[in-house]
């Protein structure tokens, strides 16, 4: 189903209320399959969960806290109120961990399978669900298509999954700018808008953004747009953000992202879909050349105004899965939303989260 009219705003499921919850974090360290230390954050409310585990997977250059911005009700709150056992994964792209050079292949082969196993072991659940966003979505879908996360029976994939369709300016940056920048920098870092960088090229890029982006007074917000997409801004609509999120949360949530990732994404955008950058055991070279090795029901969501990955990305992947298994999967393109405001927009608890809750609770076999 594609939301394209006022009826796209789904009511909160019957019996679910979202009060101001008191929650407790339990940090669970685990090792990726290549030995890298990562962690999960199990967020619990006052009452024991009545439903199974849900794993939330963030994108590149942020942390699991991206799902807990200062809005009225977060997705974590909504899931806990609905009875789910909520687990937030900090994989190797997380700004909550020491920065490293990483690729989607490494996350797909080493991080997400280990995270899923850890949740299953800790909870005793046979099957779990996942909500995955952006590069957490691409890398997790790589794991799923390679048959590495078979315990996951429902996946809500946000913004992009197997097809990588970006605006023309983003494509030009990936093709022409990335080869130049990677000679001098190991990372791009939106926090250069808050903390003066040491590298001359980083200072030059920051000055360029300051001169060319006039959409707001938050330089980190502008640096995010320059780093990840095309637009003013690229990852959200300013109208959808409250002041606390825009002025206080964004400047401290975004950090370093590996140039190795951008090299891989340039290759994927050129091909139009995900391909491997490293040849790691158990991963295909091309994710469209073999049937997906997953029986999960997949719900594809996208903001209609996303200027990082165009909604066409999700439309194409949904069509691919639907051809192989008609009627099983779902697609929702949400008007008036962009990329990350799906999760930290001030009205996301009204416009987006009830949809996610409904899809997580939907029958797996249709």
UniProtKB/TrEMBL annotation:
Swiss-Prot/TrEMBL cofactor(s): FAD
> Can the keyword Oxidoreductase be found in this entry's annotation?
yes
**What Gene3D superfamilies would the database entry show?**
alpha/beta hydrolase
Q: Name one GO molecular function term.
A: oxidoreductase activity
Q: Name one Pfam family in it.
A: Abhydrolase_1
Q: Which UniProt keywords apply?
A: FAD, Flavoprotein, Hydrolase, Oxidoreductase
- The answer to keyword Flavoprotein applying to this record is yes
List, for all copies, the residue spans of the domain called AB hydrolase-1. Answer: 53-345
Q: State the InterPro entries in the record.
A: AB_hydrolase_1 (IPR000073), AB_hydrolase_fold (IPR029058), Cholesterol_Oxidase (IPR052542)
Q: Which residues form a coiled coil?
A: none
Q: What family is this protein classified in?
A: Belongs to the GMC oxidoreductase family.
Q: What is this protein called?
A: Alpha/beta hydrolase fold
Provide the organism lineage as a comma list. Bacteria, Bacillati, Actinomycetota, Actinomycetes, Micromonosporales
